[in-house]
Design a protein that fits this description.
Layout: E1 3-7, H1 14-18, E2 24-26, E3 32-34, E4 37-43, E5 48-53, H2 67-75, E6 83-86, E7 90-94, H3 102-105, E8 115-116, E9 122-123, E10 128-134, E11 137-142, E12 155-159, H4 164-172, E13 178-181, H5 186-191, E14 196-209, H6 219-228, H7 231-238, E15 244-245, H8 252-255, H9 267-277, E16 283-287, H10 292-306, E17 312-316, E18 322-328, H11 334-344, H12 356-367, E19 372-384, E20 388-389, E21 405-406, E22 412-416
Parallel strand pairs: 1-12, 1-22, 13-22, 16-17, 16-18
Antiparallel strand pairs: 2-3, 4-5, 5-7, 6-7, 8-9, 10-11, 11-12, 13-19, 14-18, 14-19, 15-19, 20-21
Helix pairs in contact: 6-9
Amino acid sequence: MQTVVMSGDSTPEALDGLAFETLVTIDDSGHLQPALATSWTSSNNGLRWEFELRHGVTFHDGTPLNPSPVVETLSKISNQPWRVRPGNNSVIFESDSALPNLPAMLSLPQFAISAMSSTGEAVGTGPFQIDRRNGPSFTLKANDDYWGGRPFIDALELLTSRAPRDQQNDFSFDRADVIGLAPEQLRRAQQDRLRLGVSRPAETLFVVISSAKAELRDVRVRQAISLAIDREAIHSVIFQHQGETASGLLPNWLSGYEFLFESSQDLTRARQLRMEVGQTPAISIGYDPGDPTERVIAERIALNAHDIGLNMQAVAGNSGDLRIRSVTLPSLDPAAALSGSLDRLGLPSASIMSTTESLYASERAALQTYEAIPLVHLPRVTMLKDRVRDWSASPAGEWQLDRVWLAARNARVEVHP
């Protein structure tokens, strides 16, 4: 029996695509592909959409897929601009304003479809089903009846609350075949000639405003902080030139226009804004006490703020007025990625048109609030043993585990995101 063990520091995102599926997916080229819906049509100038459901799909408890659980799942999601109702083996969306990009939006993980089993647990339709959960540990087994074909491996074990040092030890002592690697460790791994998978820059670090302090409600203070930050130093010193400095919410390889946004340090302009505001009380920037890299970033940003006359201190924990936040690209469709990223950052994410002009305008408006200040775009790095075969990942680094197999029979693969 071939088992993959994945461990990380939070609930695994792998559950999104492996156990629970969406109506539509985005392929590695950024194109829409059928998933639980086989086709979709729009009418009434984009005010009405109908998605035809795939035949022969069952949930993990054996219940056939039909419009009812789809409607129930999507109706529970708050603050959405649509009304959803069942059709004849279809789901119908209606809205008061046009939703031209609805199929791509429905590919986002938060719109994955689930049903409630007789035991009161959520079940999905994906290639793996949740077998059991024990605290932070999940066990997923292959879905023999998966509509897309049974996975090659038999089971996955997903362990959360694992420290990076433990993951490294597992790999070094041959207890793990695949682990996730921090971007700042990539150069050393390359020098050691280890087998690596490196995505496009797909994870963005931000400074986000997490306080309602009166002084931080003044956009000039937030802009001054952004102008004071030396992103190039963070990129070159802390991350050893891995990835790239960020000026936008989305990396340029996905949006095509990020280069139009400015991210250079400008201490003169930052000091001018600081002087316009006048005296401000102390501001804190929080960091994860278990993440030494995040601590160094917070301390460097605090020093940059001191350079323009702001009293900023780096503090451990979640109590900071500012907070370092990591957001992984939620989609390879630019409009869906922008909407999903805004949602994860807690910023307004109204319906976004898919044209380049509309995307640019929406992202520019979000950046000009300085509620989320981009720092760097980083690759997602995977380190693998040679015996792992048919490994693949999307350009954004999302692991595609349903076709992975092991060269040795009865071997054990451990995967650490």
